[in-house]
């Protein structure tokens, strides 16, 4: 059974497009990245999965349960961190989390304390007195508290300082080692590259690519840095060059053609130095959006 199975899911807000014909699945135990620019449809997908909004057509299941008719069962298995955390401002963080734990039928006072300590959150402050980042920590604790089988995280690191991001990723890895599946939506590609096994790229409401992070960055593309003398041209024309940029005496190419063709072309040139490396997910990703 898949942790998440989405089949031709479509959501229109009246006439405007949210997502269209989205299909993919996430295996149990996977850390799955979901990336795309603003307005691509990441939150719409997540909100539909959690039954906050109804699909226009298509279907999806979480651990075999239908997202519309069996949402109650799904909620027990899912920890959700929204991109923006809104709470009752007048409550203390501790009271809110204790209330939330009771709601989930979990009396986990010790776990609340433990997570708050690791995230350096003062539980005795009122929500309204917490900074954006500290509110986010309340959301993280709430999502992790009942040790859910699936964690759905929408832009989870926004507002966290680098040290806290590190702690947060540690907590996620621990949850994953204990069996949790993680669905990680983000537009910060470096963190998706660091955390995720596979990634789906969404653009204008449609999935444009699904692959292993490693395959996306390793198999298809190479980043080629050439140092050229002044008399060489500022650009290179060769099939397979996706992008090129000249800075000083350095020409950087994003290339997905045959290596041999590139070698033959370079052999005709006066190349002073060359470096061939794997592009970052960001460099590959940007290409999908041009
Ligand atoms: N409540 C709504 N009413 C009408 N249109 C909406 C609504 N919510 C989202 N949309 C539209 O649906 C599309 C997808 O938006 P969505 O918020 O899912 O994108 P996103 O990938 O999460 O973007 P971001 O990274 O900015 O959060 C956008 O064109 C957006 O304008």
UniProtKB/TrEMBL annotation:
| InterPro entries membership | AAA+_ATPase, ABC_transporter-like_ATP-bd, ABC_transporter-like_CS, ABC_transporter_ATP-binding, P-loop_NTPase
Q: Is ATP-binding one of the keywords?
A: yes
Tell me which UniProt keywords the record has, alphabetically.
ATP-binding, Nucleotide-binding, Transport
One example of the protein's molecular function in GO is: ATP binding
Task: Give the SUPFAM superfamilies listed for this entry.
Answer: P-loop containing nucleoside triphosphate hydrolases
The signal peptide here is: none
The family this protein is said to belong to? Belongs to the ABC transporter superfamily.
PANTHER family per record:
ABC TRANSPORTER ATP-BINDING PROTEIN, ABC TRANSPORTER ATP-BINDING PROTEIN NATA
Could you tell me what this protein is called?
ABC transporter ATP-binding protein
């Amino acid at each position: 059974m898949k942790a998440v199975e989405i089949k031709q899911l479509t959501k229109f807000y009246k006439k405007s497009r949210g997502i269209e014909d989205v299909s993919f699945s996430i295996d149990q135990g996977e850390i799955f990245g979901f990336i795309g620019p603003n307005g691509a449809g990441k939150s719409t997908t997540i909100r539909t999965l959690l039954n906050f909004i109804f699909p226009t057509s298509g279907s999806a299941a979480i651990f075999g349960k239908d997202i519309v008719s069996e949402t109650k069962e799904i909620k027990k298995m899912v920890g959700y961190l929204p991109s923006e955390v809104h709470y009752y401002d007048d409550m203390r963080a501790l009271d809110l989390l204790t209330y939330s734990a009771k709601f989930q039928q979990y009396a986990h006072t010790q776990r609340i304390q433990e997570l708050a300590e690791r995230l350096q959150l003062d539980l005795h402050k009122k929500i309204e007195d917490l900074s954006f980042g500290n509110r986010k920590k309340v959301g993280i604790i709430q999502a992790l508290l009942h040790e859910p089988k699936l964690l759905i995280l929408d832009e989870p690191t926004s507002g966290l300082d680098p040290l806290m991001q590190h702690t947060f990723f540690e907590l996620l890895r621990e949850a994953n080692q204990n069996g949790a599946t993680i669905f990680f939506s983000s537009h910060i590609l470096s963190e998706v590259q660091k955390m995720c096994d596979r990634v789906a790229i969404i653009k204008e409401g449609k999935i444009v690519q699904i692959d292993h992070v490693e395959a996306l960055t390793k198999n298809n593309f190479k980043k080629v840095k050439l140092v050229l003398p002044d008399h060489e041209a500022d650009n290179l024309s060769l099939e397979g060059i996706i992008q090129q940029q000249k800075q000083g005496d350095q020409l950087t190419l994003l290339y997905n053609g045959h290596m041999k063709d590139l070698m033959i072309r370079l052999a005709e040139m006066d190349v002073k130095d060359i470096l061939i490396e794997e592009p970052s997910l960001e460099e590959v990703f940007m290409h999908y959006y041009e």
